[in-house]
Amino acid sequence: MAMARPGLAGRGRVRPGQGGLGLARRGSFMASVLQEWVMALPLMQQTVLIAAVRGPDGIRKDHPTKVLCRWLRRCFLISAFEGVAILDPYDPGGGSFSGPCRTDTVDGLDAAVDLYLRSVDELPHHFQLHFMHAAEILGYKHPVPSTTPP
Question: How far is residue 43's CA from residue 50's CA, in Å, rounded to a whole number?
Answer without folding.
Answer: 10
